[in-house]
């Protein structure tokens, strides 16, 4: 674990995204909350938030951090759910992994709810979009 | 949580895969274990195995299962790490989510170890490859 | 921890109940999902299911059990939410504590979602209703 | 999860209470530590403290908080155990849920230790008594 | 993680021991429960049992197991606490690590309770005494 | 749990050590990474770091702390592995238990990896070496 004791406590924020790809008829069922398991989107959101809080238990060299906020947005396209996760802390190290973990576990939970009708659903393009705070300053993904 | 009390205890197995995409120079560092954080592949493997054991804590409607085995293979290509995760149980429900969780957290851990040199690294194509056991019999991904 | 190695593996089931008491205007907001925090009932249900899976971590002498099913029903009255939790296992010991933990954490989560508008909300009458399976046979609460 | 990054770090404290109701002969056994499971009160106290530390894992939208103190008092009446739990933090959000979770899990643990002799034992009146710290200032339960 | 799916489910049991060495005056305080922190022995016992249940989360390649029983005995000598931990399961793999983890965390908890009066207290001789069950049959430590 | 709300937030650091004793031929296998389980030293190190992060879940009266750093050094002698664990925080209470827990779980993990070839391996001399920070100032073990 990198020693962060010499770093300043600053407000830090990270945004991650992912995409869960399935069939258009599954997205239609999701819009109508007509899948065998109900409340799919709320369940995925809560799972993502819960996972963000446990990031340091999942990722071996992550520091435990007191999170100030985690939010997850889920937007439906014709054949996919777009996942955006934002995490914030006031701490000595960044929250990229918290945002990525939130997006990922939200996506895995979508699959758990959907897999009875589409076992081929795929979670893809899990990536950091931007981060701010800390000594290196702001960073934003290119392209 | 789906009631599985009427299902038989059978040997069940699932294989999931994912791909972590980065730059060729990062893969070269990885081959030489020359990244700022050492033992990247072992760390990712152990993180994936640990996450498989905690799947039912992460995915809200997953059943807690006694796992018989979890293994994770990591293969390097020119610009990516191919992740394959296999999970086995003797239980009343399948281990797809355990295999997918293992593959995903292994991938997130790769990113945690690599992000200082490539913050744009992306985890992609997280998907189930095959599963066996249980009433519905074997399933294998098409294409 | 009581030694259960001499007990038979049988299908076991327990039902617990609790009541979260608040003001009628809060129940009206809850019916319309118009509280400051959305999806209150789904969140409470998922929290209860999650807690059932962690019962053996919370209650010092509980055995870890593979749960076959957990479900939580929430019914609204004029000034309360009635919580019913059912847990099932195929194991060597009963699931009363799992059902009680599920009902309780569902109730605490209701309070967390409601406390901004009613800090006086009270969780009450947390109790076992019935259990079945195991050597002692069925039990049902009197009165 | 509510964004608390704009809130000040202040000393915050909350007191919660609950009552575990059983039969007078069970209370007599409890006074003499003569129940089948020993050290009932200490076990309940430790379980409550342990649960307070895990509140953010149990309650989906709770923030992880560094706790400065948790204490649990158990007082015996003729037919009940009165549970009082106090939690303190130096943080950006309150510790009501930590105090309530501590009181509740202490009560559930009492039931786990007592249920062999009184399966009808009931945990009741789980409620916040007072809280202090933060922008809204002090609050005390009426009546 | 070793694949245990081909192994039989049998009754398995392991006994581990450790010794926590401190000063005679500390042992005297412990006998009278007169240390700054009360209920030292009960707290250590419960911590050991709790840790046994979490062995597979702590030891990376351990399998999650449903434990049938865990017990911890603490005996005082003139300058030490002798710790004996026994774990049992009906499973496909042994419970040595569960017994060792229980003994160890009981010992660490003794130190946590005692360290204000003896920061030099030492946990020593953590070792397996015997195990039974499984294909290899019984094993007992020599000497 | 001791109330630490009146204590200052200061940089605190603790160093603990332990020794895992086995046979010389096992140490030779370890040097060559030729044991049945691979990557023994890395696995033990990661297990120790993971355990340090969970100290407050394992030790009943430990405060949850945001860790700034944890590191584990493993040195081989002819018949033992010397374990040194260092933990740092910026907090209101010390990190002795985090350092001791890290050293201990690293040692237990060594045993888990080695026990197939040496079930008699012993973890011994788990002790605090030094600590700094906080009101009482620095402390260093005598002899």
Topology:
The structure is a homohexamer.
Chain A: E1 10-21, H1 24-31, H2 40-53, H3 55-58, E2 67-76, E3 80-91, H4 96-114, E4 122-132, E5 139-140
Antiparallel strand pairs in A: 1-3, 1-4, 2-3, 4-5
Helix pairs in contact in A: 2-4
| CA-based shape of chain A | elongated
Low-confidence stretches of chain A at least 5 residues in length (pLDDT < 50)?
none
Ends apart, CA distance between termini of chain A: 31 Å
**Multimeric organization:** homohexamer
List keywords for this structure.
143 residues, alpha+beta, homohexamer, 4 helices, five-stranded antiparallel β-sheet
Overall description:
6 copies of one chain form a homohexamer. Chain A is of the alpha+beta class and 143 residues long. Chain A has 4 helices and 5 strands, in the order E-H-H-H-E-E-H-E-E. Chain A has helices spanning 24-31, 40-53, 55-58, 96-114, and strands at 10-21, 67-76, 80-91, 122-132, 139-140. In chain A, strands 2-3-1-4-5 form a 5-stranded antiparallel β-sheet, with helices on one face. In chain A, a hairpin with a 3-residue loop joins strand 2 (67-76) and strand 3. In chain A, helix 2 runs antiparallel to helix 4. Chain A is elongated, with a radius of gyration of 16 Å. The first copy, chain A, starts with 9 loop residues before the first strand and ends with a strand. The mean pLDDT of chain A is 95. At the D-E interface, helix 2 of D face helix 2 of E. Strand 4 (122-132) of chain A pairs antiparallel with strand 4 of chain B.
